[in-house]
Specification:
This protein is of the alpha/beta class. It has 3 domains: about 30-265, Rossmann fold; about 275-345 and about 475-564, Ribosomal Protein L25, Chain P; about 350-465, Ribosomal Protein L25, Chain P (Beta Barrel). A 7-stranded mixed β-sheet has the order 12-27-28-29-25-26-13. Strands 23-20-21-22-14-17-24 form a 7-stranded mixed β-sheet, with no helix packed on it. Strands 6-7-8-9 form a 4-stranded antiparallel β-sheet. The two termini are about 20 Å apart. Bound molecules: adenosine-5'-triphosphate and magnesium ion.
């Protein structure tokens, strides 16, 4: 297999589309390449679209070509400007810039209409009066051929005048359609006189009420590619059967270029839904709080959750591009998220379930400013100041009155190190009337800042803490996978039944170190021992910051990291 040494330092085998492009360039079949990402603006982009974005924009970058962003907006009822705006924002956020202006298939409606007239004039298209139900019947099945429509042999003149009437709004929806005259006996159902235009008295988000007939997706997509002189039109495998039709239009129309379609396997991700229709259902029925809910696999949801563009791009690179359908372990995505955040996120301390710790041998009114590195192995990220006081908070689960040897935290009579600070020894657990521990009293082991105690008794572990006097109060949201089934989209089950009931835990009264007071949306942190967090862009306020857990420090679900 040929390899590519031009981009990146490790040489990776070229995937099949890279090989095709390289060959086409070498053979002079194309002078330069042009790709496009062609979303329908009927929903927000998800992680599957990210794969297509990385592929199309990535190829253009790699081979010095261009990549367009084109909205394939042929379905007026389902599309709107909110989706258009979100898609542009997501593509940019992923780190890509499209070539020139954003394009819209709807900008080509005049040209596409002209091409419909052209097909009629060539005797290759006709107005058909079969109702949608009848048309389905005439179409035949996968195993039986279809039947010719009784309207198939209308004269060119009649077809031109009927199509003009369709355009003028003289027919109701469903009354007639314009169809290509190809082959009702073709084994490929897409070639059985496919619909080119339907009557649809719908307002379009860009063309307004100019049209009451709309071209079908198939009659628009390839011609839009041709208008934009796309050299490699890349789509997912479910369009493989549409390729003969794609080619038929290109061959039978006076188009300015002859693009070619290539298909790759879509991304299916375990524990994840990647169907816009189902994602929309989750939003519409209120199972999540919007398209950008941090539990959603949408690009905007991942962003709000704290996932970085680099993590998504690395993930897409890692999974590769093939023609074989399969299911990618969501652990691969999680691995890429952790990998990037571990490298780049500054460290901080935050106590999620606070328990008061009183240091009996530390002066009441004293504040000692300790310094801690922002990142253990990236000096350039600088340091932060940790105010250390007599009263601190530690994590409730980091203290036990008694415990066995496996428990590496604070135990009565035993020692632990406070992260970035002193070693302490616990002396007493103060309880309320119900016997709940409400405070731990301990003392600092002398001369233990940044070194082991002089008496040779080492601490059993390290726990995090914040000052009880100088901290910020915050809310923390712990997310888990949205679905408990590996394949929530499996047929035969309602995917709503596989929603993980524990997909969100909201913790109030959390205490974070004071340096987080200046955190802003878009920053990432590792809360030591807890995972990676970011400020929530929706619920966070100046008075009450809300931190989303992007992901835990370790994979608690699968064994993927050992496979990588
Ligand atoms: P629909 O067409 O049903 O609205 P869609 O997911 O195909 O949904 P599009 O907006 O048409 O959405 O997708 C834009 C591009 O992204 C297409 O080229 C499509 O093939 C690609 N794409 C969509 N889903 C995936 C996926 N899971 N993996 C890879 N590419 C995908
Ligand atoms: Mg689609």
């Amino acid at each position: 297999m040929s390899t590519d040494n031009t981009s990146g330092n490790e040489s990776k085998p070229l995937h099949f589309i890279q090989q095709i492009i390289k060959r086409d360039l070498n053979e002079g079949k194309v002078q330069s390449i042009a790709t496009r990402f062609p979303p329908e603006p009927n929903g927000y982009l998800h992680i599957g679209h990210a794969k297509s974005i990385c592929l199309n924009f990535g190829l253009a970058e790699e081979f010095g070509g261009t990549c367009n962003l084109r909205f394939d907006d042929t379905n007026p009822e389902k599309e709107n400007q909110e989706y258009v705006d979100s898609i542009m924002e997501d593509v940019k956020w992923l780190g890509y810039q499209w070539h020139g202006e954003v394009r819209y298939a709807s900008d080509y409606f005049d040209q596409i209409y002209e091409w419909a007239l052209y097909l009629i004039e060539q005797g290759k298209a006709y107005v058909c009066d079969l109702s949608p139900e009848q048309a389905r019947e005439y179409r035949g099945t996968l195993t039986t051929p279809g039947k010719n429509s009784p309207y198939r042999d209308r004269s060119i003149k009649d077809n031109l005048s009927l199509f003009e009437k369709m355009r003028a709004g003289e027919f109701e929806e469903g009354r007639c359609s314009l169809r290509a005259k190809i082959d009702m006996a073709s084994p490929n159902m897409n070639m059985r006189d496919p619909v080119l235009y339907r009557v649809r008295k719908a307002h379009h988000h860009r063309t307004g009420d100019k049209w009451c007939i709309y071209p079908s997706y198939d009659f628009t997509h390839g011609q839009s590619d041709a208008i934009e002189k796309i050299s490699h039109s890349i789509c997912t495998l479910e369009f493989e059967d549409h390729r003969p039709l794609y080619d038929w239009f290109i061959e039978n129309l006076p188009v300015p270029a002859r693009p070619h379609q290539y298909e790759f396997a879509r991304l299916n991700l375990s524990y994840t839904i990647t169907s816009k229709r189902r994602l929309k259902q989750l939003v519409d029925e209120g199972h999540v709080d919007g398209w950008n809910d941090p539990r959603m696999p949408t690009v905007s949801g991942l962003r709000r959750r704290g996932v970085t563009p680099a993590a998504i791009r690395n993930f897409c690179d890692r999974i590769g591009v093939t023609r074989s359908e399969g299911m990618v372990d969501v652990g691969m995505l999680e691995y890429s998220i952790r990998e990037d955040l571990d490298k780049n996120a500054p460290r901080a301390m935050c106590v999620l379930r606070p328990l008061k710790l009183v240091l009996t041998n530390f002066a009441e009114d004293k504040t000692e400013l300790l310094e801690a590195a922002a990142h253990p192995n990236r000096e350039e990220l600088g340091s932060r100041e940790l105010p250390f006081t007599k009263e601190l908070y530690i994590e409730e689960e980091d203290f036990l009155e008694e415990a066995n040897k496996k428990y590496k935290r604070l135990v009565l009579g035993k020692r632990v190190r406070l992260r970035n600070a002193y070693v302490i020894e616990a002396d007493e657990a103060v309880k309320d009337e119900q016997g709940n521990i409400i405070e731990v009293r301990a003392h600092i082991v002398e001369d233990s800042l940044g070194k082991d105690p002089q008496d040779g008794v080492k601490p059993k572990g390290v726990i995090h803490w914040v000052s009880a006097q100088q901290h910020i109060d915050c809310e923390v949201r712990l997310y888990d996978r949205l679905f408990i089934e590996e394949n929530p989209a499996a047929s035969g089950v309602d995917f709503l039944n596989s929603i993980n009931p524990e997909n969100l835990v909201i913790l109030r009264g959390c205490k974070a170190e004071i340096s987080l007071a200046t955190a802003s949306v878009g920053d990432h942190f590792q809360f030591e021992r807890q995972g990676y967090f970011c400020l929530d862009s929706r619920y966070s306020t100046q008075e009450m910051p809300v931190f989303n857990r992007t992901i835990g420090l370790r994979d608690s679900w699968s064994k993927i990291s050992s496979q990588l």
